[in-house]
Structure formats: structure tokens, C-alpha cells
Specification:
The complex is a heterodimer.
Chain A lengths: L1 H27 L8 H12 L2 H34 L1 H16 L5 H9 L3 H25 L3 H9 L5 H37 L5 H10 L3 H29 L1 H12 L1
Helix pairs in contact in A: 2-10, 3-4, 3-6, 3-8, 3-9, 4-6, 6-8, 8-9, 8-10, 9-10
Chain B lengths: L1 H7 L3 H34 L1 H14 L8 H8 L3 H25 L3 H9 L4 H38 L5 H10 L3 H29 L4 H8 L1
Helix pairs in contact in B: 1-9, 2-3, 2-5, 2-7, 2-8, 4-5, 5-7, 6-7, 7-8, 7-9, 8-9
Classes of the chains: A mainly alpha, B mainly alpha.
């Protein structure tokens, strides 16, 4: 009981201090750019709990999910193909290095130019930005497959799809998850940027509108929604990763204990 | 597009855009580095502070820096401060977390040996904590370097602060598509140079470390 109380104190202590400082300083000397905490909470409920939830938040989230899902599936697929083939790997490496180093937002003007503005352009932006970490990590993971396992599969005649499904993918999965962990924040970032840049609805678009109209508490509430969404994504990812890679973490624990 | 790329290389405008981009990148990364190392060591060495800041860190860290764009526009407009705000926020967390991991990895026996040999707090940080932390710090710095470039370019594209991103959006709205592609190529190459530079720095500064020594011997 005492322990949980102490844990709760540690978890809530600093946030409470920070919010109090914010509260006291904004109530005593009102600042045009910073709303008071009650004002922000009130605006948050007024603006986002209601039709805005499915008119602005839902489309953004769906685009993010679609873009990330395509990036992950395509990244793993291409990664396995390239990772298993030495020549292909050598050929594609410089190209991939370049695209990984290219800051993804610069491609937004190109995509707008080529395809105009639509849901699909925005999803495509997320795919193009988020695919690289997944792809490169999958290649790395496939390449690093244990050679004893590979030889064993070969001598048991396990090949083709079965080999990919039962040997390559499981052994590369920790690396693949590392890639996905890096890809999700990029996807979120591109979701927001693409909406700030050019869109007619969505979370980023709304926040931008609020800023242009100098609706400061509304703008902050939008930033809060984006922040909460990112945190939710991070928490969900950690949950899925723990479940899928449970065998891997246990193996690590055993190795560390030994 | 390639001939266009070679032509723009001779323009003064192009190089001043590159300069402005690198200035925002370097300044932001530098400030984030100093702040993250100092705070990381202070917080990392104190179990109390580590526990007390954990929830706040985990809450703030996943928030993408680009959510701050509207705020930056409002506060600073198209000035370098806008870029710096985004760059510092994004790169700070990358380095800070790695420094925390690094400090947590410090060998307690080495710390106690230092203490019984009469080393002061600062000496222990310098001779025990710092070497252990170095590989982590450089990993963080490498990640932060590419994130900082992404945000520098994003700020220029969206807010219109001077640099390559602004040049790209100008070329696009002016219909000079060859220039736009050439500038994008240049941006990608800048990213490659930064990546290679960070990897080189890592190898250079960690030449004494086992991970690098082993690589060379093999």
C-alpha cells in the first residue's frame, strides 16, 4: 500500500507541480498566447467532444492507420525479397540510403504536383516517409538470420513460402519491430504536416485554422489532441510489441540471467 | 534535371539556402545537445529525480515536434527561432533518453572505487560516467542529427524560414519544376552527408571502445 502510494506520488508529483506553476502564472498575469488550465479544459471539451471527433479527428486517424499499415506491409514484403537476394541488396543499397536520408516532407510538393490533393495523396505521403525504417530494418533482420537455422531449414527441405513464414520472419521480427517503432512517429509527423500543408479537413488543418484566426485556446486544445493521439499510438505499439515479441524478451531475460 | 542540378550549384542563392539550413540545424542540435547532456547526467545520477521525472518524460517524448508549428508561427513567424523551437524539441528527447540509458549503465563498482580513491563528484562524472555514456550519447546524437534536418526543412517548407525548404516551395509555386527536383536532390545529398558525418564521428570518438575496436580487428 505504502509502495503504491509512493509510486503514485512519483508519477503525479512533477506533473502537478508543472500544472500549478502554469495555473498560478497565467491567472496572475494573463498572457494572450497561453490560456489558463480551466479555459483549456473547457475549450477542449467544447471543440473536440462532438461532431469534430468524426469530422476531423477520425479522417486523420484513418489516413494515419492506412498509411502506416501500407508502409509496414510493403516494407516487410520488399525487405524480405531484397534481404534474401544478395545482388538485389547490393544494387538497391545506395538508392535506399539516399531515400532514407531525404527528409520526407520535401516530397510533399512533388506529390501535390503529380497527384493533386486527395486522401490518397496524403496516405501516400505517410507511406513514402514511413516505409524506410521498416524496409531497412527488415533487410537487416533477414540478412542476420542465424546460419544454423538456415542450414537446418534447408536440410529439412523447408523452402519458399514456408521458410519465410516459419524461419525468416520470426527471426527477423525483433528488428522489424524496431523499424515499426521508428516508422510510427514519422507517419504521425507526416499526417500532421500534410494537413498543415494542404488539406480541407483533418486535425492539422483545424489547428492551423485556429492559429490563423488567433483562436488561441482552440489552437492549444488541438495541439493537446495531437499530443494525446501520439501518446496513445506509443502506448498501443508497446502493448502489441510486448505481446508479439514475448518469446524474444523472455529469451533475453534468460540470457541475461545466465 | 542533372544539368539543372549542376547549374544551381553555381548560384549564390543556393549556397546561402544551404548555409541557412545548416545554421538552423547546427544551432538547434547544439543547444539540444548541451541541454540534454547536462539534464541527462543530473537526472540520471539521482534515483529520486529519475523516478520523479519519468512520467513527465514519457508523456512529453512521443509528442511530435511538428504539432508545435502553429504555435511557432504565432510566437515567432518566419524567423530562425521558429525552426530552432521545433529542432530543439525534437532532438532534445532523442539525446536525453540515450544519456539516461548511458548513465544507468555506469558500473557501480567503478563509481565506488572512484569514491574511495577520493575522486570528487565532478571527477567521477568526467572519468567514470562520461566514458560509459559516450556510445549512448553518440547514438542519440546520430538520430538527433537526421531528425533535426527533417525539422529544419519542414519549418522552411511550412513556416517559410530561410533555407532549402523555402527554396523548394518557391520553385514549386513558381512552376520551376526542374529547379525543384534539383533542390530536392541537394537536400537528400545533404542528408546523406550528415548521416555519413555522424557515423564517422561515432567511429572516431569511440575508437577506444570495444564495439569499434572489435569491428576493425575483424
Amino acid at each position: 500500500m505504502k509502495k503504491t502510494l509512493a509510486g503514485l506520488g512519483f508519477a503525479l508529483g512533477l506533473p502537478i507541480i508543472l500544472v500549478s506553476i502554469w495555473w498560478v502564472s497565467t491567472v496572475n498575469s494573463p498572457n494572450f498566447f497561453v490560456p489558463t488550465p480551466p479555459e483549456l479544459v473547457k475549450t477542449f471539451i467544447e471543440v473536440w467532444i462532438g461532431p469534430a471527433l468524426w469530422e476531423d479527428v477520425l479522417p486523420s486517424v484513418l489516413r494515419f492507420l492506412a498509411g502506416s499499415a501500407i508502409a509496414i506491409v510493403l516494407g516487410i514484403l520488399l525487405g524480405v525479397i531484397v534481404g534474401l537476394n544478395r545482388t538485389l541488396r547490393d544494387l538497391t543499397e545506395p538508392v535506399f540510403e539516399f531515400f532514407r536520408a531525404l527528409p520526407p516532407p520535401v516530397l510533399i510538393p512533388v506529390l501535390l504536383l503529380l497527384f493533386g490533393l486527395s486522401n490518397w495523396t496524403q496516405i501516400m505521403m505517410i507511406v513514402i516517409g514511413a516505409i524506410w525504417p521498416v524496409l531497412l530494418n527488415t533487410i537487416e533482420g533477414v540478412r542476420a538470420a542465424d546460419s544454423v537455422q538456415s542450414d537446418t531449414s534447408r536440410s529439412y527441405g523447408i523452402q519458399g513460402f514456408d521458410r519465410v513464414r516459419y524461419q525468416i520472419l520470426p527471426s527477423a521480427s525483433p528488428q522489424i519491430f524496431t523499424g515499426i517503432r521508428q516508422a510510427l512517429p514519422i507517419g504521425l509527423m507526416l499526417m500532421i504536416i500534410s494537413e498543415l500543408f494542404a488539406a480541407t479537413e483533418g486535425l492539422g488543418f483545424q489547428v492551423n485554422q485556429f492559429q490563423r484566426r488567433f483562436a488561441i485556446p482552440e489552437m492549444w486544445s488541438g495541439i493537446l489532441v495531437l499530443g494525446l493521439l501520439s501518446i496513445l499510438v506509443a502506448v498501443l505499439f508497446r502493448f502489441v510489441e510486448r505481446r508479439v515479441l514475448r518469446w524474444y524478451h523472455r529469451l533475453k531475460d534468460l540470457e541475461n540471467a545466465a | 534535371m542533372l544539368p539543372r542540378f549542376l547549374t544551381i550549384l553555381s548560384f549564390g542563392d543556393f549556397w546561402s539556402s544551404v548555409g541557412a539550413t545548416l545554421a538552423a540545424w547546427g544551432l538547434g542540435l547544439g543547444i539540444a545537445l548541451v541541454a540534454a547532456v547536462v539534464l541527462g547526467i543530473v537526472i540520471g545520477l539521482s534515483p529520486f529525480l529519475r523516478r520523479a521525472t519519468y512520467s513527465t518524460t514519457e508523456f512529453l517524448r512521443p509528442i511530435p515536434s511538428v504539432t508545435l508549428i502553429p504555435l511557432a508561427v504565432l510566437l515567432f513567424g518566419p524567423k530562425i527561432e521558429s525552426s530552432l523551437m521545433l529542432i530543439i524539441y525534437a532532438s532534445f528527447w532523442q539525446i536525453f533518453i540515450q544519456v539516461l540509458y548511458g548513465v544507468a549503465d555506469v558500473d557501480q563498482v567503478a563509481m565506488q572505487t572512484g569514491r574511495s580513491y577520493g575522486m570528487g563528484k565532478w571527477q567521477r562524472v568526467r572519468h567514470v560516467v562520461f566514458p560509459t555514456m559516450m556510445p549512448y550519447l553518440l547514438t542519440g546524437l546520430r538520430l538527433a542529427a537526421s531528425v533535426a534536418l527533417i525539422l529544419a526543412i519542414t519549418a522552411q517548407l511550412l513556416i517559410g524560414t530561410a533555407g532549402l525548404g523555402l527554396a523548394i516551395s518557391k520553385a514549386q509555386s513558381g512552376g520551376q519544376y526542374e529547379t525543384m527536383y534539383a533542390l530536392i536532390l541537394a537536400t537528400g545529398l545533404l542528408g546523406v552527408v550528415i548521416n555519413l558525418g555522424a557515423r564517422f564521428l561515432e567511429r572516431r570518438l569511440l575508437s577506444w571502445h570495444e564495439s569499434v575496436r572489435g569491428e576493425i580487428a575483424a
